[in-house]
Design a protein that fits this description.
- This protein is of the alpha/beta class and 471 residues long.
- The protein has three domains: 45 residues, no CATH class; 322 residues, TIM Barrel, CATH 3.20.20; 78 residues, Immunoglobulin-like, CATH 2.60.40.1180.
- The strands form four sheets. Strands 1-2-5-6-7-8-9-10 form an eight-stranded parallel β-barrel. A six-stranded antiparallel sheet has the order 11-12-13-18-15-16. The chain has a two-stranded antiparallel ribbon with strand order 3-4.
- Strand 12 and strand 13 form a beta hairpin.
- Helix 1 runs antiparallel to helix 14, helix 5 packs parallel to helix 6 and helix 11 runs parallel beside helix 12.
- The longest helix is centred in the C-terminal third of the chain and has 29 residues.
- 41% of the residues are buried.
- The N terminus is likely disordered.
């Protein structure tokens, strides 16, 4: 009997000591977490709008994703901390990407009605999520109702240098803002459009303007023009840094505007292979590697954007368009989803992770360590892509502090030599926040001592009763 009670006490101690820190409460700040939704390939929430355009047998066909499907998953978007969703083009189009425009006056029927779109935006706003819409400004379809206008060229290209084109688009977007209460717009390949016309458009239509830029030489102009810019072309460096062992992060850390919040960065996106696909040749576990890459995405400078399904995480190639397959939210486990939730929550709570100055402390052979400092708040990020444990000794922290691990429970106090040694296991990452040394955490200590004392008293009492009975 006594042995069983002692074993019970030990089991309680093990469970009690292994409790995880409760999720961090999100606090609003000025940082952004964008989530791009390819409407047709998100979720088919209702078959009522499945018109004859639906063709699931073709990789390039419409699959039936709609506004109701997005609305069904608003709780998911809110849980992982999304602050803005970007909807792919909603105009009537020949293709599911919304690039071959039939009409700017009519919306894509397979996505749902105007009332359903308005309801979706209202629901997202209630969840604290702003809504941006991608606006295609380059091409109309061969059957477009816009053919014949003086700003539509013979090959269907939109001549956006023509003031009439700018006026027309401006009127449409202004109508959308009034009707649907959109919060902003996203323009892909903005560096291929005349900056003067874009500036005129943005002056006419209020909202957050996000531009996609592929040409590094025009990035500076894009930063001046847009509220924020998605810098395309980074994914190959990201894939290289996080798929294998021992790669350095120099190419990522030396990107233009790396320290600027004017730029948005990503792991994979609409026109790239999925990061999961890039992992296949290495044999490394997708969940493990996604956690490493996401830790970098949410803690390095630049705001993060996720392409839909990255939190699952999904697989796919851009060559066969499998990167655009419909999301299965029930696939696999939820480890990556929970990791995104935790990272976005930390980024909200600790502003140094989103707005602090970054200083690289170590970047060699697949181990990256850096600090983020904002006013009196200091955080440290360790990302270890190697096959062995790694550590770094910190010497610039005042005496009497402690470092609390946020992703993995850890508590580091000052060593005898005045240094603080923070470490991470192989293929793992952790974030540390600097705090005042709390000494013994008395609330937990008192509870633990009290419970253990009760167990001991109970064990002694039962032992004495059993002994008396035997006598």
């Amino acid at each position: 009997m006594v042995k069983r009670l002692i074993y019970g006490a030990l089991l309680f101690f093990i469970v009690f000591a292994g409790l995880q820190v409760a999720p961090l409460s999100a606090e609003e700040d000025s940082s952004h977490f964008y989530y791009y939704i390819l409407v047709d390939r998100f979720e088919n929430g209702t078959t009522e709008n499945d018109t004859e355009q639906i063709d699931r047998d073709s990789t390039a066909g419409f699959y039936g994703g709609d506004y109701q499907g997005i609305q069904n998953n608003i709780d998911h978007l809110k849980t992982i901390g999304v602050t803005e969703v970007i909807l792919s083009p909603i105009v009537d189009s020949e293709d599911y990407l919304g690039q071959q425009v039939n009409s700017f006056e009519n919306l894509q029927e397979t996505y749902g009605s105007e009332e359903e779109l308005k309801q979706l935006v209202d629901r997202l706003h209630e969840a604290g999520i702003d809504v941006l819409v991608q606006t295609p400004l380059q091409q109309v379809s061969s059957s477009s109702e816009l053919l014949g206008r003086d700003w539509i060229q013979a090959d269907g290209q939109i001549d956006f240098t023509n003031e009439s084109a700018v006026d027309y688009i401006s009127d449409r977007l202004s109508d959308w803002v009034e009707q649907f209460q959109f919060d902003g717009f996203y323009i892909e390949n903005a560096d291929q459009l005349p900056a003067e016309s874009l500036e005129l458009l943005m002056n006419e239509v209020d909202g957050l303007w996000l531009g996609g830029m592929s040409d590094e030489s025009s990035l500076e102009k894009g930063v001046e023009l847009f509220n924020q810019v998605i810098r395309f072309g980074d994914h190959e460096e990201t894939f290289s840094s996080f798929t294998g062992y021992g790669a350095d992060f120099t190419s990522l850390l030396n990107q233009p505007f790396f320290q600027s919040n004017d730029v948005v960065h990503y792991i994979d996106f609409l026109h790239t292979d999925r990061f999961t696909r890039a992992l296949e040749p290495t044999g490394n576990h997708p969940v493990t590697r996604w956690k490493l890459a996401l830790t970098y995405l949410f803690t390095a400078p630049n705001d993060p954007i996720l392409f839909q399904g990255s939190e699952i995480p999904m697989d796919g190639s851009i060559d066969d368009l499998s990167t655009h397959k419909m999301i299965n939210f029930l696939a696999g486990d939820d480890q990556v989803t929970r990791h995104v939730e935790k990272l976005s929550s930390m980024r909200d709570k600790y502003e140094s992770l989103s707005s602090g100055e970054m200083k690289v402390l170590h970047d060699e052979n697949g181990f990256l360590a850096f600090e983020r400092i904002l006013d009196d708040e200091k955080t440290y990020v360790l990302i270890n892509t190697t096959e062995t444990s790694q550590h770094i000794n910190l010497t610039d922290i005042d005496s009497g502090k402690e470092l609390q691990g946020l992703l993995i429970n850890d508590l580091v106090r000052e060593g005898e030599n005045g240094e603080y040694r923070i470490a991470t296991d192989r293929e793992s990452a952790n974030i540390f926040i600097v705090k005042e040394d709390s000494g013994i955490y008395w609330p937990i200590t008192i509870v633990f001592v009290g419970v253990m004392g009760a167990f001991i008293i109970f064990a002694i009492t039962m032992y004495r009763k059993q002994r008396h009975k035997n006598i």
